[in-house]
Amino acid sequence: xxxxxxxxxxxxxxxxxxxxxxxxxxxxxxxxxxxxxxxxxxxxxxxxxxxxxxxxxxxxxxxxxxxxxxxxxxxxxxxxxxxxxxxxxxxxxxxxxxxxxxxxxxxxxxxxxxxxxxxxxxxxxxxxxxxxxxxxxxxxxxxxxxxxxxxxxxxxxxxxxxxxxxxxxxxxxxxxxxxxxxxxxxxxxxxxxxxxxxxxxxxxxxxxxxxxxxxxxxxxxxxxxxxxxxxxxxxxxxxxxxxxxxxxxxxxxxxx
Length: 256
What we know:
Layout: H1 2-18, H2 32-97, H3 130-147, H4 152-165, H5 172-185, H6 189-202, H7 209-222, H8 226-239, H9 244-255
Helix pairs in contact: 1-2, 2-3, 3-4, 4-5, 5-6, 5-7, 6-7, 7-8, 7-9, 8-9
């Protein structure tokens, strides 16, 4: 996927750098109808070029989003493995430290067989990890619908169900961000705004908060709220000056 992303970036740069200039037409000569037709041709050619470039940018953004999601999933799985290993080590340590009662020898009369001392069966401590496993499976299922199966419409209810079932999960912020991104891509801006707002207000320490602020700024732009967009972009640059989100915010501010 990284190779395809690099190749796509090269294609975009090449198409921008080496695109043939639009033919220069004399718009002042000829009749009014002829001048109007020439203007329409120039405008149409520019629109087609802009549309093609926008499609390339959209594809690249989706691939970048997929890469980020894959990295998040790998980090999540690594963290789960470390937690289970630590739990296992703790259980082993507890078993080793537990005192073992010595067998009590019974004194039997002469001629009477001494009964065998049977050590009591060790009661094994069972760790109830059902909730954690269910939470993990639910989150991974939703993420896989995006990254592996690319079933974006099915991923939306999957993330909604995860958020409703595990609102305090460690990955609730990520789930809300994923949900917001999927809804944003479908132009369902009101619902996307709710998801990104949740990340910003309820998860102030999440690494998805600066990206969510940028998304809220983009939604504000799309809904003709330029002043709000400017406020959000400025907030990102102030609170997260060294982040990639701050660089995107600066670019958006320059275009307002």
